[in-house]
Design a protein that fits this description.
This protein is of the alpha/beta class and 509 residues long. Helices cover 33% and strands 26% of the residues. The strands form 7 sheets. A 5-stranded mixed sheet has the order 11-12-13-14-15. Helix 1 packs across helix 9, helix 2 crosses helix 3 and helix 8 (169-183) packs across helix 9.
Length: 509
Amino acid sequence: MQNVLEYLEKTVKRVPDKIAFADEMIELTFQQVYENARAIGTALFQKGYKKEPIVIFMKKCPHTVAAFFGTIYSGNFYVPIDEEMPKRRIELILSNLHPKGMICDKDTKEMVGKFQYDGEVYLYEELVKNEIEDVILQDIRRKTLDIDPIYIVFTSGSTGIPKGVAACHRSVLDYIEQLSAVLEIKEDTIFGNQSPFYFDACLKEIYPTVKFGATTYILPKSLFMFPVKLVDFLNEYRINTVCWVVSALTMISSFGVLEKKIPEYLRTIAFGSEVFPIKQFRLWKKALPEAKFINLYGPTEATGMSCYYKVEREFALEETIPIGQPFSNTEILLLNEENKRAVEGEIGEICIRGTSVTLGYYNDFERTRESFVQNPLNTSYPEIIYRTGDLGKYNEQGELIFVSRKDYQIKHMGHRIELGEIEANVNAIEQVKSACCIYDKEKEKIILYYVGEINTAQMASSLKEMLPRYMLPNYIEALEQMPLTPNGKMNRVFLKEKYKQDSEIKKKK
């Protein structure tokens, strides 16, 4: 197999009338996805697009997935953006891509005028009416290689400029084959999609769905503000598999929902992107003792998740669930500061080797060269690995443990500190629902924000019994809710800006 479209083409022959993608309003069968995608593919080719970015600016719905596959059929690569993204970010993405074509729906087309974009805009509703030309699509397929890109998704850059990660057929095929085996996905799998379509996280549902003839329900974003209604939705549509960020799961457990109502059909719960507080994990395990819980780890630059750990033993509150072992056909190189393999217990940077490593950053060779580098352990021939910027270590069982981002490792009072270790101890406190630490390098202060039923004085007192003096936060503030990024991760950038603004206000007083 060398083209991701082969998944769809094999499945549509087997279960053409089965629901592939659905939300509360729309259902698309595999036959409808197939036909709509091929119509779009024919239309884009006839309009002169060849091996270039096509921006998909549509509401998050089943039709958006058909637009993705349609772009691939045309021999181009899709770039998803969304109305919830800040205007500035969208314009930075467009200035990087210089796209000539954009696919919109009736709602989003009216918004395009707000951006600096002078390319063509096509309505999805019109493109799917185009007559399918098999000869054109067959010719495109013959000329397509497995190293050709199929999408670009933009991640945050440390400079404030988004980085567009380009992934090809081969890396996605490899990723989906390994992920599907780990999650044991089958035709009866019913996914509940949580992640936005402009993140690579949605690959975990979209491509296995077309590979196995499974079904994906796109969960309304509004439900994640009402955890009881969210569980009702999961039960109504008999969703049995979720691949969510940790904060989406803890939002349900921390508000006591699992004590009143459980997602009774869930059998596979995969989680990632953040450390799962053991206290919250225990609530899920207690509510669903027969379910499989799988911790996933991996960066966008390696297509998606690269490591997995099936949680089958008990963990103490102060422990961290391992990220375990790499997927088949992937190797993790844990490199110390001397670019040598880290030994047991030694912290090193997590580097990834394998087919799942993507092509690099689109139109950004300088930043690509910084992170996609020659394997320092191989001095015989060219071999690219990806340096994640994440720190990890191996425990006594040989399991890989995520420690923190290199960005979150600080030097404070002469000691090297992992902010994640402070967060883990805070999360172990019974009354705490979530916690996030940031560091003010200029003033050399550790700042702790948390959500929970404990006041700041009690928090400070509790931490004195848990942490050495040099790790104690210099400033503690309770929040009503933790700010999250669109993908559901804790929004550290927002908290840094909040602290900065609050500090300036105090100065003026």
